[in-house]
Prior knowledge:
The protein is an alpha+beta fold. The chain is built from two helices and six strands; from the N terminus they run αββββββα.
Amino acid sequence: xxxxxxxxxxxxxxxxxxxxxxxxxxxxxxxxxxxxxxxxxxxxxxxxxxxxxxxxxxxxxxxxxxxxxxxxxxxxxxxxxxxxxxxxxxxxxxxxxxxxxx
Length: 102
């Protein structure tokens, strides 16, 4: 389980801004979202009908998929904290997808 101390560490990681289409799996239902920023430990996501605070979800960007917990929700934006951090290679792979699309 992710506690407040872990959330503070997650926010301390460098964030990379992007606008990358992604898929969010919430309780077996999939929906399209956009990742607005990304770090090894979490992401800021934008999407219609965001999942409830505390929900466990799966975020997929290209070939990178990670289980996460919804840490905050504000309107259509929400933050997720990854259950297991992304590797530097996984973050790099997501950033490469974004530069190809742009």
